[in-house]
Amino acid sequence: METETFNRKAAIWAGMALVTVSIGANIPYSALISLFDYDDVLRRPAGEALALFHSRGAPLVLAWWTFALSALGLAGVAALVGEALKGGKAQLSSGFTMFGVISGVLQGAALLRWTFVIPHLAESYVNAAPGSAERASLLATYDMLNGFAGAGMGEHLGQILLMVWTFGVGLALARMGGAMRWIGAFGLVTLPVWIVGQTELLALSIPGLPVIEVIPYAFMAWEVWMLVLGVALLAKALRQDAVDGSRQPLASPA
């Protein structure tokens, strides 16, 4: 039976991690919108973005740091979900788990540039003379960092690996049946939106490519899926407790 191989303890940890990361990531994300006009600011000229970054100071740096930590938290979530779904009907392969872990690491590492590199660029840019060669060099460095670490490594590659992980988890949940089947289907439905959203990133290097800006909607839908999955795993673990408790033999009278 499925309940005989369902890892209740792992499901509890995975459920708590899913709920924590899906909710917790919105705190720094909201701060970035308020402080830095994220993510529209990424499409502004580099000089405007660096000047705005410098003007916001330590609160913005801390917001980026906590946002990066929430992305790194995805690596832990993927590992815990992999442990919770590796048995029974689910049988999520370790390969899919690995893709999820790597995605979290890549996205977190890319975001950390805003904590440990961009602040120095912004300060140097503000202190440099307008129109100077130093400013031009700093602007080029900012654009290259965002192009490689941001769009290339963090967003594009990180999201592709995230899609692979979501695909694997969605199929594993479908095999479990019941409510989990529908939760798995919900995760799978977000994938076409992620794929279409990649046009926005590819257009940075392919002028004229039609762009459909849907990544924010894919991200929001995916976070809802994470939250629902976390609650479902916790509920399943609690039901398992109730089933196991009902199977315990009654104590013999003294």
What does this structure look like?
Helices cover 81% and strands 0% of the residues. It is mainly alpha-helical and 254 residues long. The radius of gyration is 22 Å and the shape is elongated. The chain contains ten helices and no strands. Helix 2 runs antiparallel to helix 4, helix 3 (26-36) runs antiparallel to helix 4 and helix 4 (46-84) runs antiparallel to helix 5.
Please outline the major beta sheet: none
Sheet/helix structural class: mainly alpha
**What's the mean pLDDT score?**
90
Order of helices and strands: HHHHHHHHHH
Number of helices: 10
* Proportion in β-strands: under 5%
Fraction of residues in helix: over 70%
Bulk shape:
elongated
Q: Characterize the quaternary organization of these chains.
A: single chain
N→C terminal distance: 35 Å
| Rg measurement, Å | 22 Å
List how many beta strands DSSP finds: 0
Which secondary structure elements does this structure contain, and how are they paired or packed?
Layout: H1 2-5, H2 8-24, H3 26-36, H4 46-84, H5 94-111, H6 113-116, H7 118-127, H8 133-176, H9 178-202, H10 215-247
Helix pairs in contact: 2-4, 2-10, 3-4, 4-5, 4-7, 4-8, 5-8, 7-8, 8-9, 9-10
What attributes does this structure have?
254 residues; mainly alpha; 10 helices; disordered C terminus
